[in-house]
Amino acid sequence: MNIVIFEDEKHNAERLEQLLLKTGKNINVVAVIPSVAEGLKWLDNGGTADLVLMDIQLSDGNCFELIEKTNLNLPVIFTTAYDNFTLKAFKVNSIDYLMKPIDLNELKTAINKFEQLRSPMAMDINKIAHAFFKRDTARLLVKINNQFIYIKSQEIAYIQVSESIPYVYTFNNQKFPLDYTLDYLVNILDQHNFFRINRQFMVNIDAIQKISGYFNSRLILKLEPPANDSVIVSREKVTSFKNWLEGNIM
């Protein structure tokens, strides 16, 4: 049985490989992949396996981004630190999920389940990703040390990219790094409440306290909580920004 592991933390990947050896199954780990980018490259190069053991949060994003971008049609056992409430969204469609730290007996049970379902099964893993995104568009997952927390969209004042890293700033003046790009967030967050004003900033309408004219036909915003840098609506965004404001006022 060929297995590919998606796991961004080396010690977790090594422990999982050791547990697989202890299952007594004839298992060959064909690849250990730590990121969405490397996963896409592996799949583009024809990578395949009988079974995928997949951590949800990878080093550069979550696994559902990879699933959404590919036609991945491989059976998956999720290995994750997510809470049970989140997991219920896709438990029925996946082979199984294993909460970290992974227990050997639970791993054996999950693999046995896969073997029993293997022949007649044709999983559509993309449906899992779609259900996950549809359910979780109102909040973002952030990783702090070895813990995950959710930031609800109504808590987000603005998102700023600094030195290529997006940070979310909340109304209670907290700051968290994100694994998501602004391009991705534009499609996830409610466009009625959020607007991308330039390449670095996306703002919540409730964070805007004042709008003033700025040179070169641009606008400058005063936000609450205050941003460290000037918050400028780029010239090419001014018209659509005004239309967005008018749509929210009406």
Automatic annotation (TrEMBL):
Q: Which residues form the HTH LytTR-type domain?
A: 140-247
4-aspartylphosphate-modified residues are D55
> What keywords were assigned to this record?
Phosphoprotein
**InterPro entries from the xrefs?**
CheY-like_superfamily, LytR-like, LytTR_DNA-bd_dom, Sig_transdc_resp-reg_receiver
Alphabetical list of Pfam families matching this protein: LytTR, Response_reg
Q: What terms describe the molecular function in GO for this protein?
A: DNA binding; phosphorelay response regulator activity
Q: Do the record's keywords include Phosphoprotein?
A: yes
**Span of domain Response regulatory:** 2-115
Keyword Acetylation, does the record have it? Answer: no
Q: Any idea what this protein is called? A: LytTr family transcriptional regulator
Native species: Flavobacterium beibuense F44-8
Top-down, what is the taxonomic lineage of the species of origin? Bacteria, Pseudomonadati, Bacteroidota, Flavobacteriia, Flavobacteriales
